[in-house]
Predict the 3D structure of the following.
Amino acid sequence: MQLGALVPFTDTGGDPSLVRDFALAVEAMGYDFLEAPDHVVGGNPATNAGTDPRRGIADDMFHDPFVLLGYLAAATTKLTFFTGVLIVAQRQTVLVAKQAACLDVLSGGRFRLGVGVGWNPVEFTALNENFHNRGRRSEEQAQVMQALWSQPYVTFKGRYHTIDDAGINPRPTSGRVPLWFGGHHEHTLPRIAKWGDGWMPNAYPPDQAALDIFAELRRLTEAAGRDPASIGIEVWTSCGQGAEADWRREIEFWKRAGASHICLTTTFGRRHHHRIAGRTIADHLAALKRYRAAVADIL
């Protein structure tokens, strides 16, 4: 299994030297990847609190993932990078395919594209996209991006996209950017089975429900004519509660369950996850160092 970490923007901010030093420290500790969240705009907390308080995220800082990860790829040598997740349905598909291909080339193939459909209508309104058909569009977006990555010229006529014998340059060296899906909607697993390289669930604790849903993903993948072993699974974990023995038991469970990637988040505090108490960059790095030391031999 690979072990990665989520950039703790909401605590540490986005100062360029701080973000770079964080990535270098994570790389030096032996982490395999660094994951960046995505929000283009956020609602005003004062006016959105009466609807869904999550809409009011304008006070939280998020660097654009492509710009951030391009910057960090130039500063590092071994870390791979991942969007966790890019809200692809609120963006132009061909532009995302181009940005992902460029990042793949400039990083030397150290990039995975994690995508999701989003949950905040405020962002879709601001970006002039339709919030209500985002799931259906994301299915077609996957097909369009994969065609543009693999073929020099593409002709495509779908429900939402038209390409008339055109292509992007550069294209990824391998002809493909690994495409992973986040989310837990009932349609997510069939989309992964048809077009995805992996799934990023964070809703399941280490129990039978996780084993059952992983088995369902493998069944759907096989039914789609693909090898279930080719589909990665990244689960999120946290270290704000429990101690080394607890963390080891959880990692051992995920390894037996077939997870390929573990992402440690020190700020996420929803569902069964618990954020750390500290807020400084030193607090986050200390937590990352302690966690990896506890589980490294199991990976």
The chain has one domain: 2-298. The first strand starts at residue 2 and ends at 6.
